[in-house]
Amino acid sequence: MSPKDYIDKNKKRFIDELIELLKMPSVSADPSFKKDVLNTADAVKDSLKNAGCDLVEICETPGYPIVYGEKIIDSKLPTVLIYGHYDVQPPDPIDLWDNPPFEPVIKTTEVHPDGAIFARGACDDKGQMYMHVKAMEYMTANNDLPCNVKFMIEGEEEVGSVSLEWFLERNQERLANDVILISDTGMISKDTPSITTGLRGLSYVEVEVTGPNRDLHSGLYGGAVANPINILSKMIADLHDENNHITIPGFYDKVEELSTKEREKMGEAPFDLEDYKSHIDIPEIHGEHGFTTNERGSIRPTLDVNGIWGGYIGEGAKTVIPSKAFAKISMRLVPNQDWREITELFKKHFENIAPSSVSVKVKPHHGGQAYVTPIDSTAYKAADLAFKETFGKPAIPQRSGGSIPIVSLFEKYMKSKTVLMGFGLNSDAIHSPNEHFGIWNYLKGIETIPYFYKHFTKLKMNS
Fold first, then answer.
1. Beta bridge partner(s), residue 198
2. What are residue 87's phi and psi, to 5 degrees?
3. What share of the chain is helix, strand, coil (3-state, %, to 5)?
4. Is-contact 175 412, C-beta < 8 A?
5. Burial (Cβ within 10 Å: 0-12, 13-18, ≥19) of residue 308
6. Which residue of 28, 316, 408, 440 has the smallest Cβ count within 10 Å?
7. How many Å apart are CA 436 and CA 105, to the nearest integer?
8. How far apart are CA 461 and CA 23, in angstroms?
9. CB neighbour list of residue 280: distance below 8 Å, 6 or more residues apart
10. DSSP state of 10
């Protein structure tokens, strides 16, 4: 039975199972959801057992557990390691969701006429992770698994995979593999499959600006005492110049500069600027001078404020000069930029530009290195052949603006390459209200993944 025939036969069950998983609020960033995160790990464990893994266990870490599963059919055959995560982003702001974030609903959209599942984690990453579980079920149920497979599904990706390095250090032999397969990225469109060949790194910090020792009456003290919100706003504004170039000294020293030929190759990917603006309802684009929209979102580093707060934000008016102001800031990094070094450069610069009327604290949160995967590898070729089987056309290599810090960790500890086969779309609203995942995309992923196993095994054994 072909993957497509098996999917057609089990379509309703596959969708229902994913919906049940999406009902579990596995928000790793919020300790109040701890029990739900642990229950989700148990659910993933059960799903791997039911999919045909011979060994499945919950592996404790200093943080949330990692679910490990394996099916070893012959030690002489290649081994594919599947990575995914069962934790999800916080659903806030709740009032912007059309339906409760953990009460999944299926709705048709212009992009998804066959329907999409709307829920937190639908695309990132429960839906895409579960494609691999169901692909595994198909291969074991039809005696069509051509190689060994291991699963490592973690519960801390959305908070920086803080325990993953600890786990990798202690389980290198157990996790040994020939390739790592991840679906936590997207593709260009439903008509244009793509393979992500580059990821940006990340440095995430929180800043605190303190002025007076308490909130002050703005009539009595206004104009005589520094206002931390005013100061913080100006400091943030000074982090970019008139060309939207980041002003931190040394920030660009190690930035990878792509050749004209490479940039031209990237430009071959289909892109409609007007559609791009229309989709997110903006009148004009904005970014670093001298680069295209796609380049700004993939091969160039960035600095963005992700949240800012302080003072009074309740109903009505309260005339105060706040004692403190805060902001969360993320920097997306490109190859050769070390996230720890960039974090230190930011800290030094931010403290230096603060006026003497306030004090500043910079608290690093987490980060990770950028990653580029070669397009001449066996894994890339296998992924390309798999897409050809189910889409009828080759995939386009594409660098992503997102970050998956664990990819560089995998190469460090396991010396194996990663292939990123994503089936989400930019319109799926990951990390935002109304996140969703197209049912067509979900089922297409389940159909395509077994072909990767087939082609990778064949190419590896013949090399």
1. 372, 399
2. -85, 160
3. 35, 20, 40
4. no
5. middle
6. 316
7. 9
8. 42
9. none
10. H
Q: Residues 6 or more apart from 82 whose CB is under 8 A from it?
A: 132, 149, 150, 151, 152, 153, 180, 181, 182
Question: Rounded to whole angstroms, how far apart are CA atoms 428 and 11?
Answer: 21
Is the link from the previous residue into 87 a cis peptide, with omega within 30 of 0?
no
Spatial distance between the Cα atoms of 19 and 7, rounded to a whole number of angstroms: 16
Residue type, 430: I
Could you give the CA distance from residue 348 to residue 232 in angstroms, rounded to a whole number?
A: 15
Are 209 and 235 a contacting pair, CB within 8 Å?
A: yes
User: Contact, 369 vs 339, CB < 8 A?
Assistant: yes
- CA distances to 63, 259, 261, 266, 276 from 270, in Å: 41, 20, 17, 10, 11
| Strand-strand pairing, 179-182 and 418-420 | parallel
**Side-chain half-sphere CA neighbours of 157 within 13 A:** 27
Q: Do 197 and 401 touch, CB atoms closer than 8 A?
A: no
Tell me the pLDDT of the chain (463 aa) as tens digits.
Answer: 999 999 999 999 999 999 999 999 999 999 999 999 999 999 999 999 999 999 999 999 999 999 999 999 999 999 999 999 999 999 999 999 999 999 999 999 999 999 999 999 999 999 999 999 999 999 999 999 999 999 999 999 999 899 999 999 999 999 999 999 999 999 999 999 999 988 899 999 999 999 999 999 999 999 999 999 999 999 999 999 999 999 999 999 999 888 888 788 778 778 889 989 998 999 999 999 999 999 999 999 999 999 999 999 999 999 999 999 999 999 999 989 999 999 999 999 999 999 999 999 999 998 888 888 888 899 999 999 999 999 999 999 888 888 777 888 898 899 898 999 999 999 999 999 999 999 999 999 999 999 999 999 999 999 8
Tell me the CA distances in angstroms from 425 to 98, 103, 191, 200, 447, one per residue in order: 19, 21, 11, 18, 17
Please report which residue ranges of 80-188 form alpha helices under DSSP H: 126-141, 164-170
Say which residues have a Cβ less than 8 Å from residue 241's Cβ, sequence separation at least 6. 247
Give the alpha-carbon dihedral of 275, 276, 280, 285, to 10 degrees: -120
Q: pTM value?
A: 0.81
52 close to 133: Cβ distance less than 8 angstroms:
no
Q: Say if CB 155 and CB 26 are below 8 A apart.
A: yes
- Please choose, from the candidates 181, 215, 191, the residue with its C-alpha nearest in 3D space to the C-alpha of residue 318: 215
Of all helices (H) and strands (E), which one includes residue 107? strand 105-107
